[in-house]
């Protein structure tokens, strides 16, 4: 519901601006939830998942801003979600105009209150410029809050919101367990499966790296052996060539000597 004019908000000492006065309603159902903070009929109702209690949006924001525990069950860590079903029920209740004591006889649905006060009610007092500025700032903040709430609500799975439609305090613990079974355990399993898959892939990469390293070592060993063999073969071939050269040189000299003797010419031999 949109925020009402400043003059229509009930303020309790030391408490944030909260819900609606009971006498505002023509026939308020006895099961209508009252906020544990402002003790009034909840405005913009949220449900506390830790205990199933309904609370005003402004009151839960004030509680969280002051880092306080759950105002109903005193739990330190808790979650709240906008209660759409309760919001619809309250918006259709018949109410009186907040200016009924001044003479306004309007009666209508709570959802139409702002329209009546803004455009129809003849008993709304003119506000000062300062009050108008404050109201504009409140409206801007309310729009930001509403935009944030819608963004958060859109991220909540429809199945979870359906579970919360008829939530009661007794069913809250079961709902939390069911929510965990539906979403928490699935996310946990997906995380563990992803982790195991990643570890398997990492192990395979390590094994392939080890095999590649082993193959490189084997190839390097073979290259070293081949290099040693080539060096030995080269040395042997060089020694063989040198030996053949010496043998051939001696043979040539012997042939020359024989040829000289045949011609009667003595040719000296040098070693």
As a percent range, the share of strand residues is 5-15%
- Helix-strand makeup class: mainly alpha
Mean pLDDT: 78
Largest sheet: 3 strands, antiparallel
Compute the CA-based radius of gyration. Answer: 48 Å
- The run of helices and strands is EEHEHEEHHHH
Outline type = rod-shaped
Low-pLDDT segments, ≥5 res: 1-16
Helix content: 55-70%
Explain what you see.
The chain is mainly alpha-helical and 271 residues long. A hairpin with a 5-residue loop joins strand 1 and strand 2. The strands form two sheets. Strands 2-1-3 form a three-stranded antiparallel β-sheet. The chain has a two-stranded antiparallel sheet with strand order 4-5. Residues 1-16 have low confidence and may be disordered. Helix content is 56%, strand content 5%. The chain has helices at 57-65, 84-91, 113-120, 129-155, 158-164, 172-263, and strands at residues 46-48, 54-55, 80-82, 94-96, 107-109.
Fold topology:
Blueprint: E1 46-48, E2 54-55, H1 57-65, E3 80-82, H2 84-91, E4 94-96, E5 107-109, H3 113-120, H4 129-155, H5 158-164, H6 172-263
Antiparallel strand pairs: 1-2, 1-3, 4-5
């Amino acid at each position: 519901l949109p925020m009402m004019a400043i003059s229509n908000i009930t303020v309790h000492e030391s408490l944030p601006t909260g819900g609606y006065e009971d006498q505002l309603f023509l026939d308020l159902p006895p099961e209508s939830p009252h906020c544990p903070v402002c003790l009034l009929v909840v405005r913009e109702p949220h449900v506390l998942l830790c205990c199933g209690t309904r609370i005003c949006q402004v009151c839960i924001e004030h509680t969280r801003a002051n880092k306080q525990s759950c105002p109903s069950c005193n739990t330190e860590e808790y979650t709240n979600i906008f209660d759409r079903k309760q919001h619809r029920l309250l918006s259709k209740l018949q109410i009186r105009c907040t200016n009924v004591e001044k003479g306004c006889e309007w009666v209508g649905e709570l959802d139409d209150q702002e329209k009546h006060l803004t455009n129809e009610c003849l008993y709304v007092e003119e506000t000062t410029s300062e009050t108008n500025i404050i109201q504009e700032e409140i409206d801007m903040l309310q729009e930001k809050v509403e935009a944030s709430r819608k963004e958060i609500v859109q991220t909540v799975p429809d199945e979870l919101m359906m579970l919360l439609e008829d939530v009661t305090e007794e069913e809250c613990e079961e709902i939390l367990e069911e929510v965990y079974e539906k979403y928490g355990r699935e996310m946990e399993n997906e995380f563990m499966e992803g982790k195991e898959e990643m570890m398997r892939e990492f192990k395979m990469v390590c094994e392939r790296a080890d095999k590649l390293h082993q193959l490189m070592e084997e190839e390097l060993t073979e290259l070293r052996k081949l290099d040693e063999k080539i060096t030995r073969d080269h040395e042997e071939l060089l020694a063989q060539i040198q030996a053949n050269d010496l043998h051939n040189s001696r043979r040539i000299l012997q042939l020359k000597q024989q040829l000289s003797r045949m011609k009667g010419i003595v040719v000296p031999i040098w070693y």
